[in-house]
Amino acid sequence: MKQSTSLVPQHVAIIMDGNGRWAERKGRPRWMGHVAGARVVKDVVAHCARAGVEQLTLYAFSSDNWNRPVEEVAGLLELFESHFRTQAEPLEQKGIRLSVIGQRTRLPLALRQVISDVEARTAAGRRMHLRVALDYSSRAAIQGALPAQQAVRGLARGTTILPPVDLLVRTGGERRLSDFLLWECAYAELLFLDVLWPDVTGAVLDAAFEDFARRERRYGHVPQRVSA
Ligand code: IPE
Ligand code: IPE
Ligand code: MG
């Protein structure tokens, strides 16, 4: 397997967690946390592109998130639509290609249309590949990639296996993967941060990259020692 030894993580994956608690702590409704979180996404994307990250995969909505109250789900779907609509131009200008991964067929038609538009518009971007995971389940993606499953069900759209993740960051304090990129994180460095997603800044990201650069990735080999 190809082994990455780069100091800047080439493929960063982020579980953007803590929007609801951020709002609740301020005595505001949860949806305000999601709005604040979406604002942070723009800054994080730009920051990662500047830092030289080649692939950034963001967990925005899990297949299990359909179990949330209908108003919260509706608010999130609206937020995704307006985010993709307004980000198409800046992403194209920055040379960032955007793809959406996940099941797509259960998303509202208008959102699917906006996704197709932004994907087409940014397809030539070579600076960074941004993937947003919507209605995403890693177990479903792995299952969909099995030949036997494909034969039985037909190839499920969007249930792709991605390149290996170098650095997986989860904000919001929980230490779990919540069905995100289980296969791709086989040798990922894991970083769990207590900071809530809407409070993430460039400095938080820089500290995460510095932490990554200090780690020794061994891929099962013996440790590298400086020769005496
Ligand atoms: C993450 O924040 C955003 C989504 C899952 C869509 P949460 O909404 O899970 O925030 P907390 O975990 O309740 O604080
Ligand atoms: C994971 O967060 C999904 C996203 C961040 C989009 P959740 O808040 O849904 O995960 P659990 O429920 O704490 O495991
Ligand atoms: Mg959460």
Describe the structure.
The protein has helices spanning 19-25, 30-51, 70-94, 109-122, 138-145, 147-153, 202-214; strands at residues 11-15, 55-62, 96-102, 128-136, 167-170, 189-192. With 228 residues, the protein is an alpha/beta fold. It has a single domain (5-214), classed as Decaprenyl diphosphate synthase-like (Undecaprenyl pyrophosphate synthetase, 3-Layer(aba) Sandwich). The protein has a 6-stranded parallel sheet, with helices on both faces. Helix 4 links the parallel strand 3 and strand 4 (128-136). It is globular, with a radius of gyration of 18 Å. The two termini are 30 Å apart. The model has no long low-confidence stretch (mean pLDDT 94). The chain binds 3-methylbut-3-enyl trihydrogen diphosphate (IPE) (2 copies) and magnesium ion. The site of one 3-methylbut-3-enyl trihydrogen diphosphate has 11 residues, from strand 2.
Notable features of this structure?
228 residues, alpha/beta, Undecaprenyl pyrophosphate synthetase, six-stranded parallel beta sheet, 7 helices, 6 strands, globular, binds 3-methylbut-3-enyl trihydrogen diphosphate
Structure class:
alpha/beta
Q: Give the amount of beta strand, in percent.
A: 15-25%
What is the total domain count? 1
CATH superfamily: Decaprenyl diphosphate synthase-like
Query: Judging from the principal axes of the Cα atoms, what is the shape?
Result: globular
- SS summary, helix count: 7
Bound molecules: 3-methylbut-3-enyl trihydrogen diphosphate, magnesium ion
| CATH topology name | Undecaprenyl pyrophosphate synthetase
Q: Roughly how many Å is the radius of gyration? A: 18 Å
Number of strands: 6
- Helix-strand pattern, N to C? EHHEHEHEHHEEH
> Can you name the CATH architecture?
3-Layer(aba) Sandwich
Strand order in space, largest sheet: 3-4-2-1-5-6
Distance between the termini: 30 Å
Helix content: 40-55%
Main sheet characteristics: 6 strands, parallel
Which stretches of 5+ consecutive residues score pLDDT under 50?
A: none
